[in-house]
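Lay summary. Proteins are chains of building blocks that fold into shapes, and those shapes determine what they do. In this project we predict the shape from the chain. Here is one chain we studied, written as its sequence of building blocks.
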Amino acid sequence: MKKRELLEMADPLYDRTQLIELESAIDYATEKHHGQKRNSGEPYIIHPLGVAAILIEWGMDIDTVLAGVLHDTLEDTDATLTEIENFFGRDVAFLVEGVTKVSKVRAGMRHLSSYLPSTKDNLTKLLISTGQDVRVIIIKLADRLHNMQTLQHKALEKQQKIARETLDVFAPLADRLNMGRVRVQLEELSFSYLQPKRYKELKKLMKSRLGRSQRRLVKVRHEVDARLTAEKISHTMDGRVKSVYSLHKKLGKVGTIDDIYDLIALRIIVDDIDTCYLVLALLHEMYEPMVDRIKDYIARPKPNGYQSLHTTVTTPDGQIVEFQIRSIELHDYAERGLAASFHYNEQKLTDAYVKGRSEAMPADLSWIGELQDAAAALGAGEEIDIEALKIDLFGDRIFVFSPKGDIYDLPEGAYPLDYAYRIHSDIGDKTAGFLVNGRMVPFDYHLQHGDKIEVITKKTARPRQDWLDSIITQHAKNKIRAKLNKKT
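And here is the predicted shape, written in a compact code that computers can read:
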């Protein structure tokens, strides 16, 4: 990636003033990194420009792209935070500093093995270090993706170490942010370095099967396309091929490739959610559905917020085909996740932005708010419960419903009080009881996926010490402890 190429890539997305800022950042970073080389022997500036190109591809705001260009200047050059802020503004400086902090936390992880023994703990610590602005996480993912794309120039031992960390830490992070395309890219690259022989074997096996499957799918694709066109349904359709790493994991569960139905799937993108269900009905009219393989991830999203309809059908000639059906918006979110959820150009300088919070935060990413609470607590010198926070971030998730039908994302094992405080701390503080699916339940009831919850409140109700035994979320614990401490 060269300066001219990056500017041409950015030209359709940003205005003239922003492009001038980008050119200035490129010139500044080029000067600061002058004389530095990558393992490949190329000028070091190739890397930050590559990171910026990835951020542009993801559709990020100009400040994030500028920070991508500058992300290594604080750590690797004589650049200062004050200098960056003077030249490029407070927000860009804040992001560059955040990425630098993440790098320092990662470097310190080698000395924290007794305190943070698992990769999930490492990832929790890594996330907390991002502080208030979640764009730091996105820049770090872009940084890691570009490093993985150029990993061949590292020594073998270094390749293995970086690939293992990527598979254990950064790929799960991308998944947690529902950045599906990034997760797949990181997994594929990591797997190719960690198990190169197995990777090549499975790639060869998949290639032989895909040729046959794709030829057989042509007829089905034409049939479906013709039917949707006849019904005047605006749509696009393409094939989704299972990744090599996903195949590797699936084979560990099912045994042989002949038992895998979704090696290749047809993906149908339509205008809106109502049309998704209409297309599902048409497919079931055309072909015989495998009832146990119909998945409605729109009504009940996956824990990371992924939404789509999945169905597997059998054609009259016995072919088994999987379909994925989603709207344009849901498809964008499935591919880009967090990067598709934030529109910083529209919310800059608002109170929510200055505080590092977005009113547009999707419900399934509400854990980022808890993460920011933890970051603020650490910054104030307070202790946090790493284990509880880990549960909030990485435990299995359940989705429950308010009386109005709003969906709330909670960790598996959560109690009704966790839900109450998830809605609002004032509701949690005034809780007197709960109705779950129309019946009274005790405080120690474990919520189930799909439960409908109504919180009964009283003005005279107050948090009690024993409530701490009936919650698992860090947010609820913090709120209850704060109220209890006020009384003492």
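What the prediction tells us: Residues 72 and 100 are 7 Å apart (CA to CA).
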